[in-house]
Amino acid sequence: MNLGIKIQYQGQVQSKGMKGYFFFKESIKNMKTSATVTRSSKHVCKKIIQYVDFENADVIVELGAGDGVITEHLLASMGPNTKLISFEILDQFCDKLRAIDDDRLIVVNDSAEHLNKYLKENGFDKAYDVVSAIPFVALPKELSKKILKEVKRNIRKGGNFSQLHYSTLVKGIYEDIFGEVKTEFVPLNIPPAFLHFCKG
Ligand SMILES: C[S@@+](CC[C@H](N)C(=O)[O-])C[C@H]1O[C@@H](n2cnc3c(N)ncnc32)[C@H](O)[C@@H]1O
Question: Looking at domain 40-199, does it have CATH number 3.40.50.150?
Answer without folding.
Answer: yes
